Amino acid sequence: MAANHPYRAEIAAVRELLADGGSWHAAETSLSRLSAESRVARLGVPWPDDAELTARAEQPERMLFAARAAAGQQVISSVAPSEVLPPRFDLRQLGFTTPVKDQGECGSCAAFATAAALEGTAAYTRGARGLGLDLSEAQLHFDYAAARESLHPDGSWPDELLDDAMAKGVAFEDCYPYREDGAGSVNPGWRDRLARAEEVVDLSGNPAAIKHHIYGYGPVAACLVIYEDLFHYAGGVYRHTTDKTSGGHCVALVGWDDVEGCWIAKNSWGTDWGEGGYVRIAYGEGYLEDYPAARPTTLGCTGVNLRAWLPPQRALRLFTSAHDANAWVYLENAGWARLSGGPRGTATALAMLAEPRARGSAVAPFIDNDELAMLRIGQ
Length: 379
Fold this sequence. Notes:
Layout: H1 6-18, E1 24-26, H2 36-41, H3 50-55, H4 59-69, E2 88-90, H5 91-94, H6 109-126, H7 137-145, H8 158-167, E3 170-171, E4 194-197, E5 200-202, H9 207-216, E6 220-227, E7 233-238, E8 245-257, E9 262-266, E10 278-282, E11 298-301, E12 304-309, E13 313-320, E14 327-331, E15 335-339, H10 342-359, E16 362-368, E17 371-377
Parallel strand pairs: 7-10, 15-17
Antiparallel strand pairs: 1-7, 2-8, 3-4, 4-12, 5-11, 6-8, 6-11, 8-9, 9-10, 12-16, 13-14, 13-16, 14-15, 16-17
Helix pairs in contact: 6-7, 7-8
């Protein structure tokens, strides 16, 4: 006979509360099986103070109204897929999200949400579904966030990590693999395998702006208050059933659904939680749109520059104007890249690319700030 673990009583209690018209269902998850201490260890955003919570007492209703009111608005970004915001949008369905990860027993959620936002933005803004960018959460958390531990002993913030990503860049995962115990260090050559955020945008407290950003640029890192029942979330549109909270957390928003009245968020608790690692969370829930803190807590960036040798791939298209100095190549998994080196350099690169493009064979590109800086043929 199976042991009667305490979490089973917790799940039963949540199910009872959901039985009368609840919008989600509770079940045993990878988080359910953990102790209360281990669950809290997976949260990593500083807990809001009472004054900030009190100031946002009416926020859930306002955020719900504002999120629904954004439907059909004229889009802001010139590269968005259509001229108005659709009632539903999901970057997963378009192939612009990276795999769900598991942060383990470590409060590194802000690093994972930041990396997810950067990875998704890099692919979406290029129209490059096969980009496969995988960034180092270890560098974001154990190097960048740890340097501020004296300022924030109880967690880290995505605005600071995005600022780091803009100022210093983030190494690729293979230069600094993630381990929840923090073991390891960054490869000395990481500056030739990095991603750097472009303009960071504060979207806090503005559901319409959050939607516009996701639609025009890609995922958004967002902080939220975690209620105890969320550890048992197994699907549906989440609305808390208890007022008991466990701490602050950070996720990446990848879409929304106005019919269901929810955001679609990528978490970092592995795929054995939620909907394959994702959660649909109701508008206004958990202070998601405007976490109670006197700082930006819901953010995105408008682009991601890369500096790295990329895997071999085909050059699908070449473009040049009347002047060879303005020449571009469309790479199979990285999108458009400008040819560098002035008229002589671009003419040489065009000549080098023409034959493998005609044959449909792969080339290995070195990209630096969206320019094709070097090229290897015959890979």
